[in-house]
Design a protein that fits this description.
The complex is a heterodimer. By secondary structure, chain A is an alpha/beta fold. Chain A has two domains: 4-238, 3-Layer(aba) Sandwich (Rossmann fold), CATH 3.40.50; 241-354, Rossmann fold (3-Layer(aba) Sandwich). Helices cover 41% and strands 19% of the residues of chain A. Chain A has 13 helices and 14 strands. Chain A has helices at residues 9-19, 34-43, 57-68, 80-85, 87-95, 122-126, 144-161, 171-175, 217-238, 257-272, 290-297, 313-321, 340-354; strands at residues 4-8, 24-27, 50-53, 74-78, 100-106, 137-139, 164-170, 177-181, 241-244, 251-254, 277-282, 284-286, 302-307, 327-331. In chain A, the strands form three sheets. Chain A has a seven-stranded mixed beta sheet with strand order 3-2-4-5-7-6-12, with helices on both faces. Chain A has a five-stranded mixed beta sheet with strand order 9-11-10-13-14, with helices on both faces. Chain A has a two-stranded antiparallel sheet with strand order 1-8. In chain A, helix 11 (290-297) crosses helix 12 (313-321). By secondary structure, chain B is an alpha/beta fold. Chain B has one domain: P-loop containing nucleotide triphosphate hydrolases (Rossmann fold, 3-Layer(aba) Sandwich), CATH 3.40.50.300. Chain B contains six helices and eight strands; from the N terminus they run E-H-E-H-E-H-E-H-E-H-E-H-E-E. In chain B, helix 4 (100-110) runs parallel beside helix 5. Classes of the chains: A alpha/beta, B alpha/beta. Chains A and B meet through strand 1, helix 2, helix 8, strand 8 and helix 10 of A and helix 6 of B.
């Protein structure tokens, strides 16, 4: 057959992880990401990997913690309620500086919420979630093809900086189907060498220690300073975004993930109606592209941020843009996905006000 | 084939059963009344027949699925009305069960109500999907699902597609693939599905032209 395959987002991200050399998966099924877990259950034994369905997300995250200590590529996937249960472990993993990849296929919250798509876990992903001064890198794919590529990049970033990386998808991206091209299989034995710190059995060498703990405050402060230095490097090297038709635009739309895609349709329709609008789509949600957004927003009449939440990323948009121009917000929540027409209406309303 | 009383769509997860069910019902409705779609999908949380309930009601096609809040819950429930409708000969019925073994188990629970002589059972194949990318694997899944569903497959359907990127050559590649499955299984091919007016010529099987009902928010 051709090199393209027709896949659901959940299946695509799972296959991408296998291609990236991940052979360890621990997780617990939850709608709308269950196909991810199921795909791994079927595929990992075929490639000599280990799949384990844990008794809860609390145990899954601690399995990730343990497995990541070996320096091997490890991943879990979940949705909001499950990801909340994982936050204690996330903090430990960030503190212990362990490469690992987490996929959150976000659904409506808070609490049990519902099973429809949402982006309301943005704060949780980008501002911590767990305790302590830590960050996880957060990637927000807009298409299934991009999700496939970002899963691979997530492992590389995790390895390079010894950090957890979160891929923040949403139910729509997990459930929809699109044709994708997968990357080549990477041999798990050819991946970055972590033998300097990984726990592989000391034998005759000095034992390694992996921990997020130090009882001496001065020593713990030093550990924190090391994390912060690393975050600075990540901000410098890994910040990513995409712009569409921003140069000649009078107004700037901002949205990430699936919402960025819907805004793509909005731009086409708005331009047909003579409204010159462009799109700024952050791809890394942490580090957030503050400087780049500031530059793109310069000279525009306003910014309209659209999210599947009551307004979370908009706080970062305001931090980037400052008081230089108005920042408006439009959002739907509870699993309702804004359609292009209602965004266009919001756009027309703000345009009239601005004129 | 289309004169049958009940049409059952079987297949692997994501092979296109729901889109075909909706189109099949719309096609049958042009000839007959009343028509019902049984949405017995207990697997998929999104992109289900029941999402089109109001649209199809306008054309007097009833979509039978859990009602009220249960319509959007991911609970494995099958409305009691399904058996009633299957046992009555008033309706022409399209049965859209979920994919894989879960769907087959649901079919097996209602297979006793499906009159074999009055029904056509189809196995939908998209060779661009994982797990049905070789003839052997496809035949294996087909036999297993058929056993689980306690229903004999009467026809194969070629639904080779890459979504909006589907080219004529993909559809024809699919025909050769499904032909090989047909040879290996002894089951004839009913048709080749074509979405949104893609130009196809030199096809071996009758074309079934479809309209896309299950759209993403940016396709609306």
């Amino acid at each position: 057959m051709t090199e393209k395959t027709m896949v659901k987002g959940n299946e695509a991200m799972a296959e991408a992880a296998i291609r990236a050399g991940c052979r360890l998966y621990f997780g617990y099924p939850i709608t709308p990401q269950s196909e991810f877990t199921e795909y791994m259950a079927k595929r990992l034994p075929e490639v000599g990997g280990s799949f384990l369905q844990s008794e809860s997300e609390v145990s899954a995250v601690n399995m990730i913690y343990g497995a990541a200590c070996t320096g091997r590529r490890v991943l879990t996937s979940t949705s909001g309620p499950g990801f909340s249960l994982m936050q204690e472990g996330m903090s430990y993993i960030a503190g212990a500086e362990l490469p690992s990849v987490f996929v959150n296929v976000v659904r409506g919250g808070p609490g049990l919420g519902d099973i429809q798509p949402a982006q309301s876990d943005y704060f949780q992903a980008t501002k911590g979630g767990g305790h302590g001064d830590y960050h996880a890198v957060v990637l927000g794919p807009g298409t299934i093809q991009e999700a496939v590529e970002l899963i691979s990049d997530a492992f590389d970033i995790a390895d390079r900086y010894r950090t957890p990386v979160i891929v923040l998808a949403d139910g729509m991206l997990g459930q929809m189907m699109e044709p994708v091209i997968f990357g080549k299989y990477r041999d798990p034995d050819s991946l970055p060498d972590h033998s300097e710190w990984s726990l592989t059995g000391a034998g005759k060498r000095e034992p390694h220690k992996v921990t997020s703990f130090n009882i001496d405050p001065y020593e713990l402060e030093k550990m924190n300073m090391r994390y912060q230095a690393k975050y600075k490097e990540i901000i410098k090297n890994e910040t990513r975004y995409e712009t569409i038709r921003t140069e000649d635009a009078d107004y700037l739309l901002v949205g990430f993930g699936t919402m960025g895609r819907i805004l793509g349709s909005v731009i086409r329709q708005a331009r047909e109606q003579g409204i010159k609008v462009g799109l700024f789509r952050p791809i890394t949600l942490w580090p957030f592209p503050y400087d780049q957004l500031k530059k793109s927003a310069k000279g525009k009449k306003y910014v309209l941020d659209v999210e599947m939440s009551t307004g979370q990323m908009v706080e970062d948009v305001r931090l980037a843009v400052g008081d230089s121009l108005p920042v408006h917000f439009y959002g739907r929540t509870g699993g309702v996905v804004p359609n292009p027409e209602e965004v266009l209406q919001a756009l027309r309303k703000h345009t009239e006000e601005a004129e | 084939m289309l004169e049958k009383h009940v049409h059952v769509l079987m297949g692997m997860f994501g092979s296109g059963k729901t889109e075909i069910s909706l189109n099949l019902a719309a096609c049958i409705r042009q000839e007959r009344n009343p028509v019902a779609i049984v949405d017995a999908d207990i697997v998929s949380p999104y992109f289900r027949s029941r999402d089109l309930t109001e649209v199809f009601a306008e054309d007097n096609v009833e979509i039978i699925a859990p009602k009220g809040a249960f319509r959007i819950a991911d609970l494995p429930t099958i409305p009691a009305r399904v058996r009633g409708v299957l046992q009555s000969y008033d309706y022409s019925i399209v049965v859209d069960a979920g994919g894989n073994d879960y769907g087959a188990v649901v079919l097996s629970s209602i297979s006793g109500d499906i009159n074999v002589r009055q029904s056509a059972v189809y196995f939908v194949i998209n060779p661009f999907r994982p797990f049905t990318d070789t003839v052997n694997k496809t035949v294996e899944h087909l036999s297993r699902l058929s056993r689980r569903a306690r229903l004999r497959v009467d026809y194969l359907i070629n639904n080779a597609n890459l979504g909006n990127e589907t080219a004529e050559s993909d559809i024809l590649t699919g025909e050769r693939f499904v032909e090989a499955v047909s040879e290996a299984s002894g089951i004839p091919v009913a048709m080749t599905c074509v979405m949104n007016g893609t130009e196809v010529s030199g096809n071996s099987f009758p074309l079934f032209r479809m309209k896309k009902y299950l759209k993403t928010p940016w396709e609306v």
